[in-house]
Amino acid sequence: MYRLTSLVRQQRDESTRMSLGQREQVLERVRDAILDFRIAPGERLVERELIARTGASRATVREVIRELTALGLVTAEPRKGAVVALPSLQDALEVYDIRAALEALAVRRFVERAGGDQRAALRRAFDELERVTDSDGNMVALLAAKDAFYDVLLDGTENRTLRAVMTGLHARIRALRGRFLTSPGRPRRALEEIRRILEAIEARDADAAVRAVEAHLTSAVDAGVLAHEASPAPTTWTRLPPL
């Protein structure tokens, strides 16, 4: 009897692990599709379509939608159900207010703690961002290059809590970057603003780096306000093949 109970428990645990693994895989696929704009802001997430496209169970898809809602990537709308979030202007202002404080801390800690290898890695990440910007690459490539720059920056802070908090905001920040960078000329202006952040860091001038961060984010918010006023609910986004 003990062996039978143990076997049943083992099978149940294995089933749970497989279910969790599938949920994480589906969550990653759908989250990445939203962040890469393969699923556009304002688009409905229809359960039966996600089931067909991912092969997951209805229960798994519902769990994924709940987690995406918690991340701020999906909202529940009356008579429409789950919809990919379209950040409001107020959402943008609140997120960028927090981002300004966190990035100011990040550049200070990078200047204080990063070694030569990390500064060289930050320069390489910037060079790649410049290459993508100069090539007029698509929005997804540009966002990936910006993500890589900030990833190196956070590594150099040697502050795991700061990284965790910034990672928690990453999905919302990326969605807003995608919106703000659609403003005409914004990618080039953003590159020059980030160059000034990098140059201040390389000069080991933390105060100048903080000022450059503040100027960059102020400019980003201004671009976001203009984009919102021009098109509160954009209908064109850089799109990739379906999920």
Short description:
By secondary structure, the chain is mainly α.
Main sheet strand line-up:
1-2
CATH level-3 fold name of the largest domain: Four Helix Bundle (Hemerythrin (Met), subunit A)
- Backbone shape: globular
The total count of strands amounts to 2
Compute the gyration radius: what is it?
A: 21 Å
Superfamily (CATH H level) name of the largest domain: GntR ligand-binding domain-like
Instruction: Estimate the helix proportion, in percent.
Output: over 70%
Unreliable residue stretches: 10-18, 232-243
Give the termini distance in whole angstroms: 47 Å
Protein model, in words:
The chain is mainly α and 243 residues long. It contains nine helices and two strands. It has a two-stranded antiparallel sheet. Helix 5 packs antiparallel against helix 6 (139-157), helix 5 (116-134) runs antiparallel to helix 8 and helix 8 packs antiparallel against helix 9. It is globular and about 55 Å long.
Secondary structure elements and their pairing?
Elements: H1 2-35, H2 47-54, H3 58-70, E1 74-77, E2 81-84, H4 89-113, H5 116-134, H6 139-157, H7 160-180, H8 186-202, H9 206-230
Antiparallel strand pairs: 1-2
Helix pairs in contact: 1-3, 4-6, 4-7, 4-9, 5-6, 5-8, 6-7, 7-9, 8-9
